[in-house]
């Protein structure tokens, strides 16, 4: 028999209470956790603490129905019961007048009772992964609601006055409609909005009214155009447009002065607007998997840029101005048609990772010798070493010094079914992992592997790494 375990700090927390081994009515029980107990109904033991119970966790059980006595626990501030078999929420929920957080995700609930409006203190509602088709009008009276999560639901529309609420986070990724509900556009205080993985075909210009919006995720939709009124989202810091059907970006995107992350990968872009150079705070730009033939010279104004990815495009050259992006640490240009790189790339002295695999390069500019922090240089799809030796040679035509190795000249790949070893290269993830590592191991051709007594390869600090010419 499992007994109630007690931990005494500011309040006593009960864990696993399926028996009556402890009755401590003289103690104050404020938190009970019955998660993962294979329960088919709410334990009756909790009703002994209905006056003091503030938090109740019933996560991951097989509970199908909530008893009326549960709603006598009017001191409840947090009720968590995700991953159960609930099919409805009883109207008695309105009795929990002190409830602040409600988690009913991963159930079979189809609707909220309209009298949920009586739970005036509700600030967080997690209702993802439920077949909810609509929200009751009573939701508009939850004036303290700041976070609402409705991922994987079946919402068709929102209440008319929904926009009067103050939201910090609003997550919906399962609209049946192909248009953004008008009520959503009226939530002027909205800070974060997830609309990824829907069937949205357009984003109305009225979204520009969300002037306090900081995070907007529109990835994995069917959006063909982005309205120029997006510039109204003047506080926007993260804009995710990956995996849509965009053919161009509006010039007004340059007015999003606070933007730090812009992801437009996996679209149908043939160019980037010159105004992109106005995004002076931009730190991450991903325009991979598009149809870009060139990059605008104004990219050189992105002085805050740290991660840049333009894989799988049709780039034949890079603008000389890219050398002004001196804070870039990770740059990936895999699977393009680059035949040469500008000398100015040697000005990007903070580069640590550079992926040039699957291009048409014959050599590298001699200015690469200035890239002292370079830790990984990818030149081939089947390259096994992070950094390989480079040799100095004279260009046969210009007689200028260039850098080359056995991988040059690169030849365009004809086998379209061939899977590159670097196809899964994620520059952002690589950089994050690098920052977490203090040392890396490199296998040099001109040196035998040094092994210690245990037979392990000797590890060289990145700080000790120098580009060998």
From TrEMBL:
UniProt xrefs under InterPro entries: Leu-rich_rpt, Leu-rich_rpt_typical-subtyp, LRR_dom_sf, Synaptic_Scaffolding_LAP-MAGUK
Keywords for this protein: Leucine-rich repeat, Repeat
One annotated GO biological process: cell-cell adhesion
Keyword Repeat attributed: yes
A molecular-function term among this protein's GO annotations: protein kinase binding
Domain of life according to the entry: Eukaryota
PROSITE patterns: LRR
SMART domains per UniProt: LRR_BAC, LRR_SD22, LRR_TYP
GO CC, any one term: postsynaptic density
Annotated protein name in UniProt: Leucine rich repeat containing 7
Origin species: Anabas testudineus
């Amino acid at each position: 028999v499992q007994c109630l375990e007690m931990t005494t700090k500011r309040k006593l927390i009960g864990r696993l209470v399926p028996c009556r081994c402890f009755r401590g009515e003289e103690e104050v029980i404020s938190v009970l956790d019955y998660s993962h107990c294979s329960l088919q109904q709410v334990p009756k033991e909790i009703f002994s603490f209905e006056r003091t119970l503030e938090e109740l966790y019933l996560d991951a059980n097989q509970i199908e129905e909530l008893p009326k006595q549960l709603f006598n626990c009017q001191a409840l501030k947090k009720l968590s019961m995700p991953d159960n078999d609930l099919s409805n929420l009883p109207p008695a929920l309105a009795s929990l007048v002190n409830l602040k957080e409600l988690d009913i995700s991963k159930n079979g609930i189809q609707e909220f009772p309209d009298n949920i409006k009586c739970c005036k203190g509700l600030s967080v509602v997690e209702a993802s992964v439920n077949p909810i088709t609509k929200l009751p009008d009573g939701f508009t009276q939850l004036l303290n609601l700041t976070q609402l999560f409705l991922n994987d639901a079946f919402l068709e529309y929102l209440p008319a006055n929904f926009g009067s609420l103050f939201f910090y986070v609003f997550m919906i990724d399962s609209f049946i409609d192909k248009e953004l509900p008008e009520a959503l556009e009226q939530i002027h205080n909205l800070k974060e909005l997830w609309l990824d993985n829907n069937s949205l075909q357009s984003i109305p210009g009225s979204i520009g009214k969300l002037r306090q919006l900081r995070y907007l995720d529109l990835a994995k939709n069917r959006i063909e155009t982005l309205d120029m009124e997006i510039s109204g989202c003047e506080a926007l810091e993260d804009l995710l447009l990956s995996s849509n059907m965009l053919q161009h970006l509006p010039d007004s995107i340059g007015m999003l002065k606070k933007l730090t992350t812009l992801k437009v990968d996996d679209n149908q872009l043939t160019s980037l607007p010159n105004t992109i150079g106005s995004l002076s705070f931009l730190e991450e730009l991903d325009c991979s998997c598009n149809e870009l033939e060139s990059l605008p010279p104004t990219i050189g104004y992105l002085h805050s840029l740290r991660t840049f990815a333009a894989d799988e495009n049709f780039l034949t050259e890079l603008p000389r101005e890219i050398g002004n992006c001196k804070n870039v640490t990770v740059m990936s240009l895999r699977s393009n048609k680059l035949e040469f790189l500008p000398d100015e790339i040697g000005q990007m002295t903070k580069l640590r990772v550079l992926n040039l695999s699957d291009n048409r390069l014959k050599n590298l500019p001699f200015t690469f010798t200035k890239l002292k922090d370079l830790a990984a240089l990818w030149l081939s799809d089947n390259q096994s070493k992070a950094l390989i030796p480079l040799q100095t040679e004279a260009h046969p035509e210009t007689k200028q010094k260039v850098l080359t190795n056995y991988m040059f000249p690169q030849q365009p790949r004809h086998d379209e079914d061939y899977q590159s070893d670097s196809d899964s290269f994620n520059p952002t993830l690589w950089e994050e992992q690098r920052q977490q590592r203090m040392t890396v191991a490199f296998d040099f051709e001109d040196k035998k592997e040094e092994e210690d007594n245990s037979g392990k390869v000797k590890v060289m600090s990145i700080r000790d790494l120098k580009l060998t010419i």
